[in-house]
Write a structure and sequence with these properties.
Blueprint (H helix, E strand, L loop, with lengths): L4 H12 L9 E4 L6 E5 L4 H18 L4 H17 L1 H12 L3 H21 L7 E2 L6 E9 L2 E5 L7 H12 L3 E5 L5 H18 L6 E3 L4 H9 L5 E5 L2 H13 L3 E5 L4 E5 L5 H13 L9 E7 H15 L20 H16 L3 E4 L3 E2 L9 E2 L2 E4 L15 E7 L2 H9 L3 E2 L1 E5 L3 H7 L9 E4 L11 E2 L2 E2 L6 E2 L8 E9 L14
Parallel strand pairs: 5-6, 5-8, 6-7, 8-9, 10-11, 10-18, 11-16, 15-16, 18-19
Antiparallel strand pairs: 1-2, 3-4, 4-23, 12-15, 13-14, 17-21, 20-22
Helix pairs in contact: 1-4, 1-7, 3-5, 3-7, 4-5, 4-7, 5-6, 10-11
Length: 502
């Protein structure tokens, strides 16, 4: 009997106006059952070249379009995303395995970033500076780059694309997008809604292109000099390949890579609040968020009590088919993720760890080709190699500490630097954690978990996380180039620094 998700996917694609290129090069698959949903034709090299050429050509028109007019396109896109929020959420659930509330939350991020970008379209401002020369004025102006290449990952199949695209479009750029091979249908539906917005507001066609293919397609984008900025989301390994290749051609890269995120639970913490914050951050999206909490650093005075409470909370988690809306934890994306989780648990045991709960596969009889697992909690004697390595699965390693400086040092002593948190009611501890001597991550929270960032703040991390920033604050500057202008409105030509010539 065919799972109901197949029909829901068909209806959602139709509602969004998506056209699926028929073929057998690629397979859209659902981790809910492990079954294929439909075959798709991959983008050819010729089609890729045409897409980039078209985007580069249309850019010359789009950059001259007033920014508030560009904002009108993004506003209309946001309206269509709102209208089709449920349809897109169905596709995100089907392809990424997210529970309905998380899938809907991801689409809401798209809507929110459109709202932010519309306001931004009237605020792409530079600075004015005093000149040392009389009758002169200095200022900086910001200009669009050209074609922005977006390479996105399966775990946030549409939100991260929208973060990049909404901002890139109001800044005056055009976009080519290679989504993950695991989430092709979500991408086609998202692209179809943007195409409808383009038509509705009379924007030039060819502003945006979606490209379907494997990493070979992404590599060609990375190496193409017509794409001045490549924004890539994925593993640290992927970023280590993308960054140098883009830099070798003097392009720019915006990298959002791995996270090995930790939370410190201080002795003064509100443990009820901390329990909720830790549980969601550790098991949301089945541990497959870049901001998933993977390390828990608990003060010795509360470690036993808090860990026991957390193990009991894990025992109440319902695991199952996310499309029904009845469960809290959905599947891992594929067998490779399951195998990586089992290997990490094996390594943790070998390095002195004790698995307190979870780790096993469930629902294998009902869904033999899908990989549902029990989220695991592992008590570790120290921050060993396996703890310092990101495993994209629901494993939470528990460590203890005595002094706050020791906890902060543990938090920082990993290659990744994306998200971090501390649970404390001591204002001094909270302030120290977000100070220069505190967390070295791009995100440092107090009394909330490591995941669930709002679009108003810049999102990204340091060290092996790549250093990129997307979404709010001044992240828009990554999609533009800066020029310093000096305007002489006098009838003299004095030189700077008192230089005399002729």
């Amino acid at each position: 009997m065919t799972h109901p998700i197949h029909e829901k996917v068909r209806q959602a694609l139709e509602a969004c106006g998506a056209t699926v290129p028929q073929g057998t090069d690629l397979q859209a698959r659902t981790p809910i059952t492990g079954e294929d949903l439909m075959g798709l034709a991959a983008t050819t090299e010729a089609e890729l070249d045409t897409a980039i050429s078209t985007a580069a050509e249309v850019f010359t028109t789009w950059r001259d379009t007033p920014a508030p007019v560009r904002g009108a396109l993004v506003k209309r896109w946001g309206e269509l995303l709102t209208e089709h929020k449920d349809d897109l959420a169905v596709l995100v659930t089907a392809e990424a395995g997210k529970i309905p509330s998380e899938a809907a939350g991801e689409v809401q991020e798209m809507i929110d970033i459109c709202d932010l970008a519309v306001g931004l379209s009237r605020q792409l401002f530079g600075r004015t500076m005093p000149s040392e020369r009389p009758g002169h004025r200095m200022m900086e102006t910001w200009h669009p780059l050209g074609v922005v290449g977006v390479i996105s990952a399966f775990n946030f199949p549409v939100a991260v694309y929208a973060w990049n695209t909404a901002i890139a479009l109001v800044c005056g750029n055009t976009v080519v997008w290679k989504p993950s091979e695991a989430t092709l249908l979500s991408a086609l539906a998202t692209d179809a809604l943007l195409a409808r917005a383009v038509k509705d507001v009379g924007a030039p066609e060819g502003l945006h292109h979606v490209l379907l293919g494997d990493r070979t397609l992404g590599e060609k984008m990375v190496d193409d000099t017509r794409i001045p900025l490549v924004s890539a989301t994925g593993s640290t390994r992927m970023g280590a390949e993308v960054g140098p290749r883009v830099a070798a051609r003097f392009g720019r890269s915006l990298l959002e890579l791995g996270g090995n995120n930790a939370a410190i639970v201080a002795p003064s913490a509100d443990l009820d609040l901390a329990l909720r914050g830790v549980a969601f951050a550790a098991v949301g999206t089945a541990g497959q968020r870049c901001t998933t909490m993977r390390r828990l650093i608990v003060h010795e005075d509360v470690a036993a009590d808090f860990t026991d409470r957390l193990v009991k909370a894990y025992g109440t988690l319902t695991i199952g088919d996310p499309s029904t809306g009845k469960d809290l934890v959905g599947p891992l994306v594929n067998k490779a993720s399951y195998d990586a989780m089992q290997k990490a648990l094996e390594d943790a045991r070998a390095q002195g760890g004790e698995v307190l709960c979870g780790g096993g596969r469930v629902l294998a009889d009902e869904f033999p080709d899908a990989y549902y697992v029990e989220p695991a909690i592992v008590r570790m004697p120290a921050q060993t190699e396996v703890v310092r390595t990101e495993t994209f699965a629901p494993i939470l390693y528990v460590l203890t500490y005595r002094e706050l400086d020791e906890a902060i040092a543990l938090q920082n002593d990993v290659p990744q630097g994306l998200s971090s948190a501390i649970f404390t009611t001591d204002v001094r501890e909270g302030e120290r954690f977000v100070s220069d001597a505190g967390s070295d991550c791009g995100i440092a929270n107090v009394n909330i978990g490591t995941s669930g960032a709002e679009i108003g703040g810049a999102f990204g991390g340091e060290k092996h996380t790549g250093g990129g920033r997307e979404s709010g604050s001044d992240a828009w500057r990554a999609y533009m180039r800066r020029a310093t202008n000096t305007v002489n409105y006098s009838d003299e030509l004095p030189l700077a620094q008192g230089v005399e010539f002729l």
